[in-house]
Amino acid sequence: xxxxxxxxxxxxxxxxxxxxxxxxxxxxxxxxxxxxxxxxxxxxxxxxxxxxxxxxxxxxxxxxxxxxxxxxxxxxxxxxxxxxxxxxxxxxxxxxxxxxxxxxxxxxxxxxxxxxxxxxxxxxxxxxxxxxxxxxxxxxxxxxxxxxxxxxxxxxxxxxxxxxxxxxxxxxxxxxxxxxxxxxxxxxxxxxxxxxxxxxxxxxxxxxxxxxxxxxxx
Length: 218
Hints:
CATH superfamily of the largest domain: HAD superfamily/HAD-like
Largest sheet: 7 strands, mixed
CATH class of the largest domain: Alpha Beta
Number of domains: 2
C-alpha cells in the first residue's frame, strides 16, 4: 500500500461549479454504513465492539479473553473493510432519495478521510448505488479542503459529518458554514464530544434532508 498518497479524485479546480451553494458530505456513517459492517468483520476475528467512549481503539475486545484489540490490528481490519467495501458497505437508508431531491438546489461533493488508495473501489460503489457526485479522498484537513472548494463559490456551504472534530475543522476554516451531524449507527451517540456551536443534529436522512433544505433556503 502506498502510504504517501494523500489525495485521490478530481482536483478542486476540476470540480464543476453548477450552483452557488455546496453540500459537502462525509461518506462513512453518513452516506455508507461503516459501524455495522465493521462489527460484522471484527466478529469474523472473534471480537466485538462494546462502547465505553467515543473511539474504536479500546472498545473492541476479544470475545474469548476480553482483551482489547490493539489500534494497529484495528487499522488492518479497517483496511480490509475498505478493500471489500463493495460487498460490505451498503448505503445509509434514504440517502439516494434525499440527495436526488437536493441535487437541483445545490452542488454535491463527497469528502472522505478514507485511505486514498481505496478510491477506485469506493467510486465504483457509489456509482453502483446511484450516487454519482464528485468525490475527494484525502488525508488533508477537511476544513482546508472545504475552504478551497468555497473559493470558487458565492453561496452557502452545508457540511455533514459524523465526527465532531471534522465539523469543528470546517467551522474554523469556513466560519459561515452550516454544520449538520449525522451518524447512521447510534451506538456512539451517548459518548459524543461537544459539537461546534450551531451544529444541527439529524436522526436520519429524511430529517437531514429537511434540515439541509432549510439551511440552503436561509
